[in-house]
Amino acid sequence: MDKTDKKVAVFACSGIGKPLGSVAREIGYELTERVRPDTTVLTCLALMVIGDPEALKRIAENPVIAIDGCVLDCARKSIESHGAKVARAYQSIDFFKKHNSLKPEGIAELNEAGKKLAALAADELGEVVDELLNGEA
Amino acid sequence: MTDKPRKVGIISCSGEAIPGGTISRVACRKVLEELRPGQSVTICLPLFIAGGEGEKMFADLFPTITVDGCEKRCAALGTANLSGKPARTLIVTELLKKRGLPPTTKLRNLGDEDKAAAQAVAEEVAAAIDEVLSAK
Questions:
Q1: How far is B1 from chain A (nearest CA, A)?
Q2: pLDDT tens digit string along A118-136?
Q3: How far off is chain B from A47, nearest CA to CA, in Å?
Q4: Residue B26: closest CA among chain A residues belongs to which residue?
C-alpha cells in the first residue's frame, strides 16, 4: 500500500451504559466526519469480536487510534487481541479532565456539553492523525 | 426443575460505522430504561474479548437476545462464540422491513424517522423478551 493511500483507522467504544462511552463514540464521529474526513476511517468495533477479515486487514495496514469510554479499554484490547498495534489509545475521561466544565450526560442522546467536549477532543486528535500519516509518531 | 429466568440479557452490536448499529444501541437503551427496565440487563459486546471470565459467563447467567445492525451479525456470532448461544437473534434491517419502515441513514443526530425506527426496533426487542421469559 502506498503511503498516500493510508488512512488512520479509528475505533471507538461501543459502550451502552455510560455517558463517557457516548463521548468516545461522538469523538469518533467528529474526527472522521468533520475534522479529518479524508484521512480517517471509522470502523465498527464489533467487527473485532468476530475477527472480520476486511477489518483485520485494515488494522494491519493502517495506523490505528482507539478511543475508549472507560478503564476497561475494550477498543484497545479488542484490536490488540488480533496482534495489531494501536498507535494511540485514549480514554474519553482524559479529555473531560482537561475540559471539566463540560460534563457529559445522556447515553442514547448526549447532552450539548458532551457534544462540545467530543468536538474539542476531535480537534486535538486531528493533529495526531496528521502526525501518524506523516510518520512523525 | 430450573427456576424461570426473570431477566433477559440484551446485547447490541452498537456498530459505530453503520446506521443500523446506532439504531440497535438506541433501541436497546430504550428497552433497558423504558420498555422492560426490570426484565432486561445488558453487557457491552466487546467485553467478551476485553473482559474476564465473569463477562464471558453472561450467557450462562441470562438467556440472551442479540440485536445486530447489519447482516454481519457481530453480536449474534460474537455472543455464540465467546459466551453462549443466544435465545433470539434479531437484525435491525430485517425488523424495519417487517414493520414496513425504510432503512435508516444516520449515524448520529437522529431525526424523527430514525427515532421512529428505534422505537419500532425497541418494541420488537421487548416482545422478544416477553417470549423468552414466558417460554422458559
A1: 34
A2: 999 999 999 999 999 998 6
A3: 6
A4: A108
End-to-end CA distance of chain A: 19
Cα within 13 Å of Cα(B120), Cβ side: 21
B97 occurs within a structural domain: yes
Q: How many CB atoms lie within 10 A of CB A97?
A: 9
**What's the domain range around B18?**
8-135
Cβ contact, residue pair A26, B74, below 8 Å: no
Q: Is B58 on the interface with A (CB under 8 A)?
A: no
Look at residues A48, A53, A62, A65 and name the one whose alpha carbon lies nearest to residue A121: A65
CATH code, domain carrying B93:
3.40.50
Q: At what angle do helices A19-29 and A112-133 cross, to 10 degrees?
A: 50
Domain assignment of residue B26, yes or no? yes
Q: Is B129 on the interface with A (CB under 8 A)?
A: no
Q: Does B23 touch chain A (CB under 8 A)?
A: no
Where on the phi/psi map is residue A73: left (φ > 0), alpha (ψ -120 to 50), or beta?
Answer: left
Question: What are the angstrom distances between the C-alpha of B83 and each of A66, A79, B75, B76?
Answer: 24, 19, 11, 10
Instruction: Provide the shortest C-alpha distance from residue A52 to chain B (in Å).
Output: 9
Question: What's B59's DSSP letter?
Answer: H
Complex prediction ipTM: 0.93
The string over A46-78, giving b where at least 16 C-beta atoms fall within 10 Å of a residue's C-beta and e elsewhere, is bbbbbebeebbebbeebbbbbbbbbebbbbbbb
Contacts of B108 in chain A (CB under 8 A): 25-26, 29
Number of domains in chain B: 1
At A25-42, the pLDDT tens digits run 999 999 999 999 999 999
- Residue B1 pLDDT class (50, 70, 90 cuts): very low
